[in-house]
Amino acid sequence: MAHIMQQQRLAAGVQQRPRSSAARPVCAPRPQPARGGSASSSGLAAGGSPFACRAGKLDEVSLFADSSLLGPSSASAGAAAAVAGVESVELKSKLGLDYAPLAQYLQEGDFRKADDETRALLIKMAGPAAVARSWVYFTEVKTIPVEDLQTVDALWRAGSKGKFGYSVQKELFAQTARRWPKFFKQIDWTVGENNIYRKWPAEFIYSKDAVKGHLPLTNALRGTQLFEALLGHPAFDKNAGGKAPGIEERSKAAGANTLKF
Fold first, then answer.
1. What is the pTM of this model?
2. What is the spatial distance between Cα 58 and Cα 53, in angstroms, rounded to a whole number?
3. CB 157 within 8 Å of CB 147
4. Nearest residue to 204 via CA among 226, 225, 219
5. DSSP for 164-219, written as a single string
6. What pLDDT, on the 0 to 100 scale, is given for residue 212?
7. Percent over 70 (pLDDT), the chain
8. Which residues lie closer than 8 Å to 1 by C-beta, 6 or more apart?
9. Statement: 50-244 belongs to CATH 3.20.20.70
10. What pLDDT is recorded for position 98?
11. What share of the chain has pLDDT > 90, as a percent?
């Protein structure tokens, strides 16, 4: 009896702990995969938190920054892998161009800025005439050094874990029997049953959710000559050397494949 009374006294002295009144952090909902340029341009800034939850108002959380809302299990892990790959690429340039900004954009997973930077670099590679007109003529591609195009391609492959890059596009082009309509559909540059070509930058996908070979972009609205010249550059040959073949080498190669009577 004494034992039972002691337990009752102990139970009477137990008090419930008060519930905490501290505000809980607000969590933004997980977004659908972003398409177009608006999502990629609002990526996680340097030093920012990679988590979707934070204390404060919901409208303070960007609902369009896919890189900041996916959480550490996907975006952060992918970014960490991309960092190591990009940092291992040697930034070679026979033209003396600076590829550090491109490397940084790809390291951060900002594929929209990386694509813009690649386009600007390609114009510089093509020479003063291309810089003056702000676009590249397809005949100028053959003058671009192998080292420079290989550096750009290596950065894209490292930053995307082998998903993007000119050499990746060349491989897919060969797999589609060099048929442009089939190739553009393969890399998701067309939409709908009628395969309408995506015209504006915002219509493309600047994330790893894009299909293999989707990036970098090359304007094909005026024809495919520029794109074909890029994919056919010696830099992306399997046994690419240190320089593009000269006129004599190309002439000999052409003569070897010519029937003689």
1. 0.62
2. 9
3. no
4. 219
5. SSHHHHHHHHHHTTT-HHHHHHHTT-EETTTTEEP-SGGGSB-STTSPTT--S---
6. 98
7. 59
8. none
9. no
10. 98
11. 55
